[in-house]
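# step 3/5: fold
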Amino acid sequence: REAHSPAQAPEVWTHLSGRATPAADFRTPPDYRLMRHPVYLGFILATWPTPDTCAGPLQFAVACSGYILMAIWFAGRDLIAQLAERYRVYREQTSILLPRVDRRHGPAQC
């Protein structure tokens, strides 16, 4: 079994070593300026449009979509607790899953 280095899990290593966790840095890469969860959108688009939707794939798509919606709620709650006003402003400027560009101001700039 291979040992893991601190670089592979910095938060866990920092906690176990008793050091203070560094402040979180909030960045918005290009995809995240249009919507908050582009990876989740991609996964939803990959699971729903199946040509032969019988019980198995339909249950999988429903379960994954439910999981994603719960994950969005929990992640948003945690990010508000961690980043406070910076994340609130970002959340107001971007949509959750579908791209939204405000024609007056363009994509969110955080």
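# step 4/5: annotate
The chain has five helices and no strands.
# step 5/5: archive (pending)
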